[in-house]
């Protein structure tokens, strides 16, 4: 017996009293009708209000003010008929946590609201979100076109993970070049993919430009909004069809839990290109011969994740983690706003240091992404930045080992500031050419700026620079290896050292 999605449309809204829905079953971007103090106001609540209140259950037992952790594998049926109806989708209650859970669905509603999507599905990690999102679109023989500069785990998933399943992912060389996106679309291309702010090079994607290319080609545009968060930009408002997040980063903020989410705008027409998305448009044995599109309408894609790529592959988010992520989101705007302004200050400060060759931060006027940042990220350009130290890897090593406040970690989005040397860690497995194309040089360090006092962070960066200066003077007097000898061959040097565009 296939696992039934526990909250199919339109019953999803009906089964969640207080979840406002339009007559057509579309989730509104308004608010639960109960339990929300601003109900009845003419204006839509602002982001800070939404991040606290959106999605919450209003029928919690004992009047619990926050959504409790429903840490239960399954849910009891009252009787024979209810069990049958629940599996048939005629009764909208929960069945089994792999297919749906009240704590998880409260988080799903909150994230759908904040991203202006129609619905959302939470899963166990950001990698799981990307996996279930792409596998609910593409099959063996299909092709996906991605921006060049993407999170290293995403790149590995695309090349090693999907490669073995016959889904080919190609990377456009210059994500700003809309003609290149257009040119490289093939008849079997099924999705375009990019990060709103790329990790770690801080390139900003032209959301509406790429979404127009996707729309013209009849394929969905998937945007990873992990670094920006919906506080800084909502890709769906600029034409994205699907948004994914690693909720382990800024959405949580505390660094205590992994999680991921796929948010569907609900607007992509899966039937526009005949034969392209047959798993959604053709009769499905699990749906008594109906197609996902016939059975679920605009909810077809999320129903497919809930019923197939999520529920059957099984990367379930623990309700415990959903609770922790929900706690984090309540302060999202405060954290990301503050972290962005500190990051902007640190980026400007780093740019003034003689040991720093270049700084990758879209908020800087020197950034090639500055125009796109002004257009898409007026509230701030995020908390992740990277910079290239003169002297390559030895300089980076000295700096890295000298900082005290910055934690040496391959993580971002934490309240604590973090530092990473991509070339020898997250990007170490790549060949030189791929690393060069991704502008990952030996001197590149990535920072994720936390909530500490900016002055304390500057002092810590000064410690790093002082250590670099002292190793350099040791090298130039005592050692035979000079910093310049550590550089890459001349031909690739400008590319590797960062400020090439
Ligand atoms: C961390 C990250 C991921 C992967 O998320 P996990 O929760 O670690 O699985 C995906 N995309 C981006 C941009 C990330 O930073």
UniProtKB/TrEMBL annotation:
The keyword Disulfide bond does not apply. The keyword Transferase applies. Keywords: Pyridoxal phosphate, Transferase. Residues 469-501 are annotated as: Disordered. It holds the Pfam family Cys_Met_Meta_PP. SUPFAM superfamilies: PLP-dependent transferases (SSF53383). InterPro entries: Cys/Met-Metab_PyrdxlP-dep_enz (IPR000277), OAc-hSer/O-AcSer_sulfhydrylase (IPR006235), PyrdxlP-dep_Trfase (IPR015424), PyrdxlP-dep_Trfase_major (IPR015421), PyrdxlP-dep_Trfase_small (IPR015422). Its cofactor is pyridoxal 5'-phosphate. Residues 469-483 have a biased composition (Low complexity). Belongs to the trans-sulfuration enzymes family. This is Bifunctional o-acetylhomoserine/o-acetylserine sulfhydrylase. The lineage of its organism: Bacteria, Bacillati, Actinomycetota, Actinomycetes, Micrococcales.
